[in-house]
Design a protein that fits this description.
By secondary structure, the protein is mainly alpha-helical. The chain has eleven helices and two strands, in the order E-E-H-H-H-H-H-H-H-H-H-H-H. It has one domain: MetI-like (MetI-like fold, Orthogonal Bundle). A hairpin with a 2-residue loop joins strand 1 and strand 2.
Length: 298
């Protein structure tokens, strides 16, 4: 029998941090999901490109040269030029920052408001829960793109209004997910014990309930970014989002549709860029969901 003795005294037992164990379990599951790892790597690449890319592009995104309009990909213009002779590669790189900006900030609006309403609704219940959920049901009754279009029509077409409109239609999704998770956590015995010890509602919500509902919030936020990017691009495509000459991908796709037969690259390249970014966020979000789900096997 092995004895752990140091100068006649037993060595102290090492305490295992449960958060460290959870993180190791999450990472172990996540790295096994190769598509999710690729999606995460692509997202990191997109973010770095959005930050440093505009400073490295060979041409200004808005400089026109009608003598070189609708040229195909070449050594000078890697993705070709558009109908105004502008370099498409430079516009794609500059537009990446705009696309990610819209996606992240619109989801941030929906997340903050939706999580707040969801926790309040699930924790307090009663009439307050009924009122909040009926408002969320009304918002969910409209397809996301139509709700965003209606809001932008009232506020006016601009990038800031697109962020607000997309953020508003993201609110009910977060609210319902967080409400359901809060209802489950609120019924746990240790919540009753904390209440018996005299903890106030603010402490219970932020210290005990919110940390236990972060997993579905993180997953939904990642997936919502993809939806927000797609919706924002759709609004710009119909002229209700970013305004010329801003190099937003949806607006670039809209401009290029008139040259599909003569210069297909003008529409194909921004369309492909949207597909790749949305796909990366979707497969990354799926990987997070699988890794954070305790029911999944190691």
């Amino acid at each position: 029998m092995n004895e752990e003795i140091n100068n006649g005294n037993a060595l102290p037992q090492t305490t295992v941090n449960p958060n460290v164990v959870k993180m190791k379990t999450f990472w172990k599951k996540f790295i096994r999901n190769k598509p999710a790892v690729i999606g995460g790597a692509l997202i990191l690449f997109f973010i770095l490109t959005a930050l440093i890319g505009p400073h490295l592009v060979p041409h200004s995104p808005n400089v026109q040269n009608l003598a070189n309009k609708l040229n195909g990909p070449s050594a000078e213009h890697w993705f070709g030029t558009d109908q105004y002779g502008r370099d498409i590669f430079s516009r794609i790189i500059n537009g990446m920052g705009i696309t990610l900006y819209v996606g992240f900030f619109s989801v941030t609006i929906g997340l903050i408001v939706g999580v707040t309403l969801g926790i309040i609704s699930g924790y307090y219940g009663g009439k307050l829960d009924a009122i909040i959920m009926r408002i969320m049901d009304v918002l969910l009754a409209f397809p996301g793109i139509l709700l965003a279009l209606a809001i932008v029509s009232v506020l006016g077409g601009s990038l800031q209004n697109v962020i607000i409109s997309v953020g508003i239609f993201s609110i009910p999704v977060f609210a319902r997910i967080v409400r359901g998770s809060t209802l489950a956590v609120r019924k746990l015995e240790y919540i009753d014990a904390v209440k018996a010890l005299g903890a106030n509602d603010f402490r219970i919500i932020f210290k005990h309930i919110l940390p236990n509902v972060t997993s579905p919030i993180i997953v939904q936020a990642t997936l919502s970014i993809a939806t927000s990017i797609l919706t924002a691009s759709g609004l710009s495509f119909i002229g209700m989002g970013a305004q010329p000459p801003m190099p937003e991908w949806g607006a670039m796709l809209s401009d290029g549709r008139n040259y599909m037969y003569d210069a297909g690259h003008v529409a194909a390249i921004p369309g492909l860029a949207i597909v790749v970014v949305v796909l990366a966020f979707n497969i990354f979000g799926d990987g997070l969901r699988d890794a954070l789900d305790p029911k999944m096997k190691n």
